[in-house]
Amino acid sequence: MKIVTVVGARPQFIKASVVSAALQKNCTEVLVHTGQHYDHNMSDVFFEELGIPKPAYNLGVGSGSHGRQTGEMLMRIEDVLLKEKPDVLLVYGDTNSTLAGALAASKLHIPVAHVEAGLRSYNMRMPEEQNRVLTDHISTWLFCPTQTAAENLKKEGITKGVSISGDVMLDSVLHFLKVAQNNPEKTAIFDRLQIQPKKYRLATLHRAETTDGGLDAIIRIFNAFEKLPQLVVLPIHPRTRPLAEEAIAKCGFRNIKLIDPVGYLEMLLLTSNACQVMTDSGGLQKEAWFMEVPCITLRQETEWVETLNGNWNVLAKLTTEDIYEKAMHTVPEPAARGQMPFGDGKASEKIAAALLNG
C-alpha cells in the first residue's frame, strides 16, 4: 500500500512522527510538506529531533491569506497525487494543509484518512473549524481521538468509516517526554533561560483572534501577577513577535520572558515543569492535561471539552479581569482527573492497522 501524507504545521509534524513510525513497518509512505510553517524553529527542527524522514516533496507555499494559501496548496498537492497515484491520502488535524490535501484527493477519487476527526468548537468563524468540518465530510476513514468526537460526527450523520483510535498526541507525549528528560542538551534549557521548575507560567499565543484583538489585555495580565511565580515564559511565533514586543513596550517589561520558538522536546520540558499553562492553542491545552499541569485556555470555547473536567483546563475571555481571575484561582489543587478519555497511548498502531487492513 502507498500512502501520501500531507503535513504543513508544527502540530502535524509531531503527530506524523508517531504514526509514520507505525506505518513504515508495512507500507510505503510519501511525505508531503506544504510549507505552511517554514521557519526553522517551526519546521525543520521538528523533523531533525523527532526522527521524521525528510519530506519527499516540499511545496514551499509559505504564508498568505487563507483562500490564497489553501488554493496554492490544492494545486500543488494535486500534481503530487497525479504523479504518485497513492492508495490513500492521510491528513491530520484542522489546518489549511489538512483541507487542501483532503480536497485534492477527493477530487481525484483517492480515499482520505483524517486523524483527529470529529473535533468541534462549534465556532464557524474559526478557520480551523471550517477546515475540520469540511475534511470530515469527504473522508473515508475518520479516526476520532475521543468518544465525544465520534458522537459529534454522528450528530452530523457521519457514521461510516468512523473509529475511536485514541489520541496520537498522547502516544507522542508518552514517548518523547522520556526522550527529552534523558537528553542533557534539552534539559539545559532551564539553565539557559534561568528558570526553575514550577516557578514560572508558560504561555503561547498564535491565533488571529488573540493576537489581533486581545494581545494588549493578555500582556498586561502577564505583567500584573503579584504572587509567585511572577515570571511568564512566552515562546513567540515570528509573525506575532512584533505585536508582542509592541504590547510589552506599552505596559513596561517586567516579568515576561519573550523567547524564540523551541523544538518539541524542549517544549515538553517547559510544559511539564510549568506551574500553569496559558494558551490559545488546541494542542497545548491537551498536552498540559496529559502532564497534569493546570491550564488557562484563552478562548471562549474548546474542541477538547474533556480537559475541562475537574478544573484542569479553564476557559477565559480575552479581558484583563477574566484572565486574572481564572489564572489566580486555577493553580491550587484541581480535582482528580478521573478516567483517561484519550486512549491508551497506542493510537498510532491502531490507525496503521486500520489502514493496512482496508
From TrEMBL:
Domain UDP-N-acetylglucosamine 2-epimerase residues, every copy: 25-355
One of the record's GO molecular function terms: isomerase activity
Record EC number: 5.1.3.23
Gene3D superfamilies named in the record: Glycogen Phosphorylase B
Pfam families named among the record's database cross-references: Epimerase_2
Key words of the record: Isomerase
Enzyme class: isomerase
CDD domains associated with the record: GTB_UDP-GlcNAc_2-Epimerase
Family the UniProt entry places it in: Belongs to the UDP-N-acetylglucosamine 2-epimerase family.
NCBIfam families in alphabetical order: wecB
Name this protein carries in UniProt: UDP-2,3-diacetamido-2,3-dideoxy-D-glucuronate 2-epimerase
